[in-house]
């Protein structure tokens, strides 16, 4: 085994966080669908799928390192958003939290002098820079739109934010 059990445990916790991100974004999809914002819902559907991919990527790394993947219980995500802006703000806040979680994983790897895991996590660090920037841009666009009609006009623009930018 190339990584410490402490690092492996922290990566298992990160899998939980990634699946929670999937769960949270999926809840946002359902709320957006209820509100009638189908393109926003598609955007968050893609975001949810991306988070699931992140969890699987970490799981594969753990398995490749000879460790078990231990799925943990997920908390129930909120579902009480009233506006698109509230949802997008929650997504930004969540991505900032995910960034802190990834940084903690890196800290564990550095502390353990685990160069392989540190290198593996570099992709996630870069991904979080992109995720936070995209969420900030989406929030800025939504905040410029002051009426439901203006928010609907944004729907063509927001899918451009989903375009691959070298990450996924």
Mean pLDDT over the residues: 92
Please work out how many helical segments DSSP would assign.
5
Number of strands: 0
Distance between the termini: 28 Å
Strand content: under 5%
Characterize the biggest β-sheet: none
- CATH topology, anyone? Ferritin
The helix/strand series, from N terminus to C terminus, equals: HHHHH
The second-level CATH architecture is Up-down Bundle
Our Rg estimate from Cα atoms comes to: 17 Å
Would you kindly provide a brief summary of this structure?
It is built from five helices and no strands. The mean pLDDT is 92.
Provide a descriptive summary of the structure in words.
The chain is mainly alpha-helical and 168 residues long. It has a single domain, classed as Ferritin (Up-down Bundle), CATH 1.20.1260. It has five helices and no strands. The radius of gyration is 17 Å and the shape is elongated. The model has no long low-confidence stretch (mean pLDDT 92).
């Amino acid at each position: 085994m190339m990584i410490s059990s402490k690092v492996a445990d922290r990566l298992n916790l990160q899998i939980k966080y990634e699946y929670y991100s999937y769960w949270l974004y999926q809840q946002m999809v359902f709320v957006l669908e209820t509100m009638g914002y189908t393109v926003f819902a598609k955007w968050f559907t893609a975001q949810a799928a991306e988070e699931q991919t992140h969890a699987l990527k970490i799981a594969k790394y753990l398995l490749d390192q000879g460790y078990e993947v231990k799925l943990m219980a997920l908390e129930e995500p909120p579902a009480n958003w009233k506006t698109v802006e509230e949802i997008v703000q929650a997504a930004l806040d969540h991505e900032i939290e995910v960034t802190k979680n990834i940084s903690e994983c890196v800290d564990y790897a550095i502390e353990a002098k685990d160069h392989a895991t540190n290198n593996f996590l570099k992709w996630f660090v870069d991904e979080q820079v992109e995720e936070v920037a995209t969420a900030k841009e989406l929030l800025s666009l939504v905040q410029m739109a002051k009426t439901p009609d203006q928010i609907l006009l944004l729907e063509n623009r927001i899918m451009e934010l989903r375009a691959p930018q070298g990450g996924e």
